[in-house]
From TrEMBL:
The keyword Zinc applies. PANTHER family: RNA-GUIDED DNA ENDONUCLEASE RV2885C-RELATED, TRANSPOSASE. This is RNA-guided endonuclease InsQ/TnpB family protein. Pfam families: Cas12f1-like_TNB, HTH_OrfB_IS605, OrfB_IS605. One of its GO terms (molecular function) is endonuclease activity.
Amino acid sequence: MEENTTHKTHKYRLYPTKPQEAAMFETLRLTRQLYNAALEQRISAYKKQGKTVTGYDQQKELTALKKACPEFEAVYSHVLQEPLERLDKAYKRFFARVKQGVTAGFPRFKPAQRWNSFKFKEVWDKKKGRWLTPGRPTDDRKRINIPKIGSVKCKFHRPLEGTPKTLQIVHECGEWYAVYTCEVPKNPLPATGSSVGVDVGTTWFAITSDGEFVENPRHLKNGLKKLRVQQRTVARRKKGGNRRKKAVKLVAKTHQKICRQRLDFHHKTARRLVNEHDVIAHEDLKVSNMVKSNLARSISDVGWSQFFDILSLKAADAGRKVIAVDPRHTSQRCHQCGHTCRENRISQARFVCVACGHSENADINASRNILHRAGHALHGVNGSGVSHAVA
Ligand SMILES: [Zn+2]
């Protein structure tokens, strides 16, 4: 990517037919299977023979794979390469962290709910300045050509800007989307001179170093309550019965609604942070999961990673910086004097330093530590978007 350009995503709703949707689900299933198999191969090659299998090695095996398992013929070749690249990136990120002394976030096997997209990595012929076959919209902009899936109805509610690079087909909240990533000129927001640390929590959605508590929206909480009631209804009804089927449908509908509301809330919160701050620091979830693992956190984790993804996309477009820092001890370290010990945290909510007596809300203290760590990391970090930092 050139210096003065950035990536912008354009998202359009897709309306696949039943067979097209079935083919899309099948593509998700196969690409996920490939990712998990590739991870398995890397792990066992290392365990059994101490051998390192590279992404390149695995790419070379794709032809043989298609011969042995012909169902993979149903997936476009670039789409099949992409999970291997994803895995390769996950490995590289992991080893970059190891180099910095953090052994966390080893690539994990993907369950179905963590695998919701597949990608065409080239949709534009740069030399000739025209669309390639995958992802090419029809002239009337009513359909998109998706190889091996078909010509899928699409709503282009706004025009594409810039030079299209990739097309990702995403299944989100029960709906399908075409997400084009385009190269566009940078559109930086004027600097504000402000930096912020963000701590995510289970009681509050987020707490900032400015002392702001971002609450989970009320309608979201109500929706979750409703969902629990409906799920209990399903459990009560007789298996195979019509009344149960109806109840299951209601659960799915509520799920979808909550999913959309959460997405909307994440967009708004990220937009606000990006408008107000030049630098936004948050904890690196890959690391924090290892440190503070509990059930509530691992459930919230899906939501947070979605939020941080949205945040870094908006930040990259606006020329802001998002830094993911090692969160270890951020809740035990005194923001004033640096003294770090467990006894500083006298309760879930309160922080009182045993060395200097500094007293503060525990979450605000943690978010200030996160910001502090980002400050260290900023030196020697270049480029926009997410940087992984250990300080
Ligand atoms: Zn202190």
